[in-house]
Amino acid sequence: MIEFAIKLWFTIANIGVSDELEYLEKKKIQVTNLVISLGLPLFLYFTIVNFLDGRYLLTSLNFSLFAGGVLVIITQFRQKFHIARFLVIISTTAIFTAQCILFRNGNELLLLVNIIVAIIYYTEKKFIILITAINLACFFWIKYESFNPPLYDSVPSGRILFNVLCGLIAFVIGLQYFKFEQMSSQKAIEAKNLELEALNKTKEKLFSIIAHDLRSPIAQLKSTLDLVNRDFISKEEFHELSHHFTKQIDQLQDNMNNLLTWSQSQLNGIVTKPQAVKASLIIQEVIDLLKQQWQAKDLQIQFDAFEDMVWMDPDHLKVVIRNLLSNAIKFSNKKHAIVINHSKNNQELTISVRDTGMGMPQEQLDQLFTSEIIKSTHGTDKERGTGLGLKLCKEFLDKNKGEIWAISELGIGSTFFINIPLHK
Question: In the listed set 163, 194, 225, which residue is the last one of a domain according to the structure?
Answer without folding.
Answer: 194
